[in-house]
Amino acid sequence: MITLKINSKSVTVEKGSTIYQAAKKIGVKIPTLCHYELECFKIDHRVGSCRVCVVEIEGRPNLAASCCTPVSEGMVVKTNTIRAINARRTMLDLLLSNHPKDCLTCEKNGSCELQSLAADMGLHRILYEGQAMSHKKDFENESIVRDLNKCIMCRRCETACNTIQTVGVLSAVHRGFSVVVAPSQEKSLDKTQCTFCGQCVAACPVGALTEMTHTYKVWQALNDKNKTVIVQTAPAVRVAIGEAFGLPPGSVSTGKLVTALKMLGFHKVFDTDFAADLTIMEETTELIERVKKNENLPILTSCCPGWVKFFEHQFQDLIHIPSSAKSPQQMFGAIAKSYYAQKIGVAPKDIVVVSVMPCLAKKYEASRDEFSHDGLRDVDIVISTRELADMIREAGIIFDKLKNSSYDNPLGESTGAAVIFGTSGGVLEAALRTAADWLTGQSLQDIDFEAVRGLDGVKEAKVKIGDLTLNVAVSSGLGNARKLLEKIRRKEVQYHAIEIMACPGGCINGGGQPYIHGDTDILKKRMEAIYEEDTDKTIRKSHENPYIIKIYEEFLGKPGSDMAHKLLHTHYTPRIRY
Known about the structure:
The protein is 34% helix and 15% strand. It has 578 residues and is of the alpha/beta class. The protein folds into three domains: 79 residues, Roll (Ubiquitin-like (UB roll)), CATH 3.10.20.740; 117 residues, Alpha-Beta Plaits (2-Layer Sandwich); 353 residues, Rossmann fold (3-Layer(aba) Sandwich), CATH 3.40.50.1780. The chain has a five-stranded mixed sheet with strand order 2-1-7-5-6, sandwiched between helices. Strand 12, helix 7 and strand 13 form a beta-alpha-beta unit. Helix 8 packs across helix 14. The protein is globular, with a radius of gyration of 25 Å.
């Protein structure tokens, strides 16, 4: 332990801590733009590139960047001297001089850390006028917009892409005044191995990286009297959207969410959780078949499109082991434009399926060629949790005052097993609940598989089901997925099933969720809320959902049937490794 003084206050912290961390411990806020920390994932981006966090250290002639300067015994630090404050103001003035002045129309307006810091520092005019950067915007994909004119070289996105996710798309390009963080040769993201997970967007403090917004398409569809517009909401959305309206993190807002969507004008409001239960029926059938035959193991869950694209680029030699089951989003779209269309007597071309997702990769997923049939996409429009919040505000709906409503049926009924898809470990746990019943022929009472829960990047467990012991693993964050897959490639480990989610912590930390600005306590509360909703459900096993039983009886036949494979399964495409 190290003891030092900050602004005349003594503080004791662990060796290796930074001045920034020590100051935070005693309630001293040091401003920063480049520092990015996700404590529960052991991620700490310390580059000191913005120089906004500088402080004075007694006995040192120069100011020090507090976010990357380690503490030492007896150190005396002053964070708020005139010299330090003037240096910060100068750095901010220089950043603002080379920054577009379109705050009112910027996607990050109200969530921009540069904007907030300028307000906190009382900077109300541009002190330095001069030449500004000029880069072409990248709109060439369905998920992420890049506007390098707003890049402040904090390099947080680089850490997200290269260190956390190990995708390796982003790095510093050019030199001097023109330097920005971008793909090699400033290629558009669709010409790279980007997975569109959106973790770079979540990390970016300004508007250099934002989601591709599709809210106007939704408004157009809702105003088209010739279309039946239905919406599905992912499990992680309900435990995060309340934050956009001032509700405490971890608030379960399912009922308010449904009410708001009905007020916006959707003809029917359905739950992606219904399709998650459907996913478990197909994926668990596949798991049991492979385990019995002892082939193509381990089975890898395929619900996450960011992880799937990562796999297609980086692990083509293992392309035979992921489950062929579509993600819940795509299963829902396929069922909506077949089974449901028949039920209501509407032609599939006249149904518009809108998804509300915590994930930016879902936008990309919906556009994949294999998820279109006869010129019709399974899912027409995907918006993020943030985009839905914008629509609710635009409609003048006071979210926190809304009463609760229920999802519509038949595609709105779900189980506790489906809602836990929203957090890391949930898909595997849901599959284990069904697999246990099917393999033993009995109804399992103890269905909480806590060994696969939590925010650890990699979790391993041995699960005993009857006479069978399943070796399973859970991974969240593509960097952790890479470690697991490389062990499988080298035949160092033997698992029966692995769940992989692209985003650290799973969908609760998706790239389209309300920004947490590094506060992992918010993620913990979202996770707790997911399990709370699971516990409160009357039915907690996917195969016991009465509407799932009915859809197989009326339409699909049985899990793994020809019709099920036609509508609910997919294939993978080896992609260039750039």
